Amino acid sequence: MQPLLSDATLDTLFMVWWSTFYAVLVGIPVGVLLHLTDRGAMLQNVAVNKVLGAIANIGRSFPFLILIVVLMPLTRLLVGVAIGPTGAVVPLTIAAIPFFARLVEAALREVDHGLVEAAQAMGGGTWTVIFKVLLPQALPALVAAVTTTVITLIGYSAIAGAVGGGGLGALAYNYGYLRYETSLMIITVVELIVIVTVAQLLGDLIVRRLARRGARASSLRVGLRRARTEEPAPVTEAA
């Protein structure tokens, strides 16, 4: 039982790690573009925003189990196999990209628009606003979005395992369900809960530290602005 559980755990972590990596790699640019092309934004473009939004909405609403089957030819073309942990990375990534992109868009929307206007007033272009204002200011929310995506992918990986994707989902289905090994089923479920809990706690810890650091930096900037704008009171000599 122990070798089976260890291999299945490594397969699950493999699928979640790589699908999260590719989802973040593609999802951040898509989310930024969704934000910047929205009405009233820097690169307002209704047509592009609607097309991207429609694609993201369709991708988020597509049932994952069906998505795995539909993408099998593409998966085989990209990675050489349609099943197994490597094959599961492709549908997991495609399912996660629109989900994460929408979270990125929501995170950027919370950034103070006054900071964007200040950067533009100082001559900052689009890239400056993105990398100096939007992404740094939204960093805690972006980490929270990554955490949510990881937890979602853990659940998706279990579904993928039931249709040949490997991992803890395959172990629970093949042994716990088909062979009625209830104890193995319970162990698998407990391990999935532990993985989710650890991911959530780690993500929350990083978010709190980033938020605290951002609050200290904001306080320091406000103090410096006040110190620069306040003029010293005139000194008069006693008669």
How are the elements arranged and paired?
Layout: H1 2-36, H2 46-61, H3 64-70, H4 72-79, H5 84-109, H6 113-121, H7 126-137, H8 139-165, H9 167-177, H10 182-229
Helix pairs in contact: 1-2, 1-5, 1-8, 1-9, 2-5, 4-5, 5-8, 6-7, 8-9, 8-10, 9-10
Can you put this structure into words, describing what you see?
- The radius of gyration is 24 Å and the shape is elongated.
- The protein is built from ten helices and no strands.
- The chain is mostly helical and 239 residues long.
Q: How many strand units? A: 0
Count every helix, treating DSSP H or I runs of 4 or more residues as helices: 10
Could you tell me the strand content as a percent range?
under 5%
Q: Please tell me what the overall shape is.
A: elongated
Q: Main beta sheet, described?
A: none
Gyration radius, rounded: 24 Å
Terminal residue distance:
95 Å
Q: Are there runs of 5+ residues with pLDDT below 50, and where?
A: 219-225
> What's the overall average pLDDT, rounded?
86
Succession of helices and strands: HHHHHHHHHH
* SSE-based structural type: mainly alpha
Binned, the helix content reads over 70%
Brief description of this entry?
This protein has helices at 2-36, 46-61, 64-70, 72-79, 84-109, 113-121, 126-137, 139-165, 167-177, 182-229. It has 239 residues and is an all-alpha fold.
